[in-house]
Amino acid sequence: MSHFRKEEDCKMSDNQHGLQRTLKNRHLQLIAIGGAIGTGLFMGSGKTISLAGPSVLFTYIIIGLFLFFVMRAMGELLLHNLEYKSFVDFTADLLGPTAGYFVGWTYWFCWVVIGMADIVAITGYMQFWWPDIPLWMPGIMCIAVLLLLNMVSVKIFGELEFWFALIKILAIVALIVCGIYLVITGFVGPTGDKAQMSNLWKDGWFPHGMSGFFAAFQIAVFAFVGIELVGTASAETADPYKTLPKAINKIPVRVIVFYVLALMVIMTVTPWSSVAPDKSPFVNMFTLIGIGAAAALINFVVLTSALSSANSGMYSTGRMLYGLADKKLAPNAFGQLSSNGVPRNGLMYSCALLLIGVGLLYADGNVMHVFTVVTTISSIGFFFVWTMILFSYIKYRKVRPEAHAQSTYKMPFGIPMCYLCLAFFVFVLCLFAQESDTLLGMVATPLWFLALVIFYAFYNKQLTRKTAAKVGFGFIVLSLVIPQLMKVLSASGITNDSNIIVLSGVASVLAALIAIVYGHFTLVKPKENNSTPFTIMAVFSLVLGYVKVLFSLVILAAVLFS
Fold it and tell me: 237 in helix, strand or coil?
């Protein structure tokens, strides 16, 4: 079967596709902007500025550059076969259904986590006007309203995202123009600070050295999550051959205008050292210069930004569960569409999970701390998704050279750039381990992948006895290694954080449970030729797994009843 599709083939019927191609060019363009500009910029940039100072501008440029190439790789893959509804489809096609399973569920999980972060952020924004508002109220109201609107049709989502994104654009442009005016007029705020360009470099471009510069990458990455949303939305776009390349090609311009110029203006009007790490610098800038009404207006804008991100999350999670169910990698209920072509069951399930964000606020109470941990988990998940897009492109170039040769939308620099992007991702992950709050999120993330492995056995009916035995054996070894690794790290002084130690213990027990599941799976499968070694591996996994779990339960009981 040919992997090339002519332009007219994009006009598929709803019966063929399931989802409806009702999004227009203006929708996709604004969805691209909305996906690339969210709470990470409006809420998280305060912390990045406090960490890196003016060098934060280089941080956003570097991240944006690498992700542009990831999006170009995704664009070439999507357009070479319009039967691909998202990057999950080409991942499953090129790397196998197992890869598609992990990418699809992880992407769904990432957007659920982003939704939780948005709930946290929305609560923080509402406290600007009503400091005493109950923590549960803003989040629940947001979830209920957006769910009802998204249940109507995909066109409603497109319109909502169009207007949300338009508000963000107008606000950022207004901020840039206002900031330039204040610099030209030499405005002096109540604190005595004068708006001037020299505020950028008077303490040096790297006031906290390279360590501060690198530390900013941890939060800045989250500002870009959702940039790949154009790939998911392209399945419901009327003319993907024209709209998708336009949306991707404009990413560098958006990064420069909406990230670099906006933050540059903030740091010229108010010195970077005056930016509070736990507040939105967009709101704080106008507060510092004494324009209270403008501060309230900007707070409204960043509130709509959080609503935009939550809206995108609802859209993505529902479509991702629909795609997974279509491939028999999720419950069949998620594959049902409403009369309007909306995956209602997936939407309702994802929205129910967003309520966890409200619970996190009550568990911690510190909006910014919860925001940092949650966004770290999401960022690492997105790193996995972006990595799989690059691996898919590398495989595509290897097995379908004729498709690449005929492509009208080739990724610049091809394979070498893929490996450079992968190296950059590894570098940023190493930076995540340097701060306690991001390290906590980093340690928590593998729990999700461990859970995916558990459920994979139920969905993959073709899982062989040999593979199951190897997976079970691998996880029982992992369950034994994790505690020893934590002892080494604690003894060396690298970490003694109690939360990380607890999470490591949970991960160890979960790995043992996975070993038990796959051990039983191996023994119930029909025996194959030369299967004795695999039987031994399964029994070994089962015995050690049960011992590990029982031992952990005894320790837990001793702690609870001591």
Answer: strand
Residue 240 is encoded by which pair of tokens?
């993907």
Residue matched to tokens 């006895």: 465
User: What is the SS3 assignment for 18-51?
Assistant: CCCCCECHHHHHHHHHHHHCCHHHHCCHHHHHHH
pLDDT at 387: 94
Measure the CA–CA gap between 375 and 113, rounded to whole angstroms: 7
Instruction: Return d(Cα 213, Cα 247) in angstroms, integer.
Output: 30
Contact 378, 225 (CB under 8 A): yes
CA neighbor of 32 nearest in space, from 244, 263, 236: 244
Q: Rounded to an integer, what distance in angstroms lies between the CA atom of residue 432 and that of residue 367?
A: 20
Its pTM surpasses 0.85:
no
The domains of the chain are located at 7-444, 446-562
**CB atoms closer than 10 angstroms to residue 81:** 19
The winner for highest mean pLDDT among 104-108, 193-197, 447-451 is 104-108
Nearest-CA neighbor of 149 among 356, 352, 357, 342?
342
The torsion region of residue 328 among left (phi > 0), alpha (psi -120 to 50) and beta comes to left
| Residue 191, H or E segment | none
Answer whether 278's CB lies under 8 Å from 219's CB.
no
Helix (H, G, I), strand (E, B) or coil at 78: helix
What are the tens digits of pLDDT across the range 198-243?
A: 888 888 888 888 888 888 887 788 777 777 777 666 656 667 777 7
One of 2.120.10.30, 3.40.30.10, 1.20.1740.10, 3.40.630.30 is the CATH number of 7-444, namely 1.20.1740.10
The residues, ordered by sequence, that sit 6+ positions from 417 with a Cβ below 8 Å of its Cβ are: 69, 411
Distance CA 143, CA 136 (A): 11
Angle formed by the axes of helices 281-288 and 45-52, to 10°?
A: 70
Map residue 508 onto helix, strand or coil.
helix
Over the range 326-355, which residues count as b (16 or more CB within 10 Å of their CB) and which as e? bbebbeeebbebeeebbbbbbbebbbeebe
